[in-house]
Design goal:
Length: 210
């Protein structure tokens, strides 16, 4: 745990990446596996993880992120895209996966299916989108922590035009919305932000034990 805390202290929102340094396929695979293992309400994972390597696509996206250099300089750009709405298929597909993975007859999962559907299907499309976005942010948090453990630099990014990203990446037709980004790679020696002391609330101000 001491190493984990050290790595979280090492992590910061990298403003300038070294574009000559690329994440190895092995480390990228570990990072994505860790992200896929993130907690998710009911285990449903109502989002997609897009890993952008293509320089041309990222160049097209950069103006939609107000010209921020991380979009093109980082080794990879990861887009977390939440489902904008859903129906029974979200639950049905998940329970089919549960049945196949655990060797359980899907009929035996009906009570669980009914519970999830009773809680989720009455939501409005706006409420569904808000809920799926929250699930994507849980995955983002795990991605950032896992990257720090691998000594991979990251920059979580909300400063972009989702509508433009959706159009460029063809997400609208897939019932997806780019909700948050994570630029991943390795910090440039020229990034002065890495030398700033980390500023957080004191545990006394942040944490209340009842």
């Amino acid at each position: 745990m001491s190493n984990y805390i050290d790595n979280l202290n090492w992590r910061y929102a990298t403003k300038k990446f070294d574009s000559t340094k690329k994440i190895s396929e092995d480390d990228l695979s570990k990072l994505l596996e860790a992200t896929s293992l993130s907690a998710s309400s009911y285990g449903l994972q109502p989002y997609k993880i897009l890993v952008l390597k293509d320089d041309d696509i990222r160049a097209k996206l950069k103006p939609a992120a107000w010209g921020q250099s991380q979009i093109t300089e980082a080794s990879h750009l990861i887009v977390l895209a939440n489902q904008t709405t859903f129906g029974d298929e979200l639950v049905d597909d998940y329970l089919t996966n549960v049945s196949e993975t655990r060797g359980i007859p899907v009929e035996g999962l009906k009570a669980y299916a009914d519970l999830m559907k009773a809680n989720l299907m009455p939501l409005t499309d706006e409420q569904k989108a808000a809920w799926t976005a929250k699930q994507a942010y849980i995955a983002l948090g795990n991605l950032l922590s896992a990257a720090a453990d691998l000594k991979i630099d990251t920059c979580p990014m909300e400063g972009f035009d989702s509508a433009q990203f959706n159009e460029i990446l063809g997400l609208d037709d897939k019932n997806l919305n780019a909700v948050v980004l994570a630029a991943v790679g390795y910090r440039s020696e020229e990034d002065q932000t890495q030398h700033y002391k980390k500023v957080r609330k004191s545990t006394e101000n942040l944490i209340t034990i009842i």
